[in-house]
Amino acid sequence: YRGEAKKLDYITGMPAGTNISSFGKTPFAENGKAYIAVTTTTDANPAIYAIDIATATATKGVTVKATSVIGIGKLTYNE
Known about the structure:
Elements: E1 20-23, E2 28-30, E3 33-40, E4 47-52, E5 57-63
């Protein structure tokens, strides 16, 4: 939902809703993209999807060898 424009954009590139069994509980956002774990009934392992916020387009990224992924984050190193 784009609050400023009062418009709902549907995200393309995600699995069909009937195939999604769960989403990660903690997504991560950075540089105009939101990353969320998606588990489907058609794949053995969950995958991380990157959603381009400007275009409402999702791209499947890395597949994780696990039964589910709860959250995504980023570690940084500071000296």
